[in-house]
Amino acid sequence: MGGSDFDHPRSTTTPVLAFPEQVAIDQLATRMPVTTDHEQPALAR
Question: Which residue among 17, 29, 32, 44 is the one 20 to 30 A from 38 at the CA level?
Fold first, then answer.
């Protein structure tokens, strides 16, 4: 019966993911327009 932040997403549009880093990237994707790999090398990795 362990509770975590992933049990209830902070936003209704943000899916519950197992990796916090993936959640951060997903949140950036919802705020930023979709860019190419060379424009966002940090997100490409």
Answer: 17
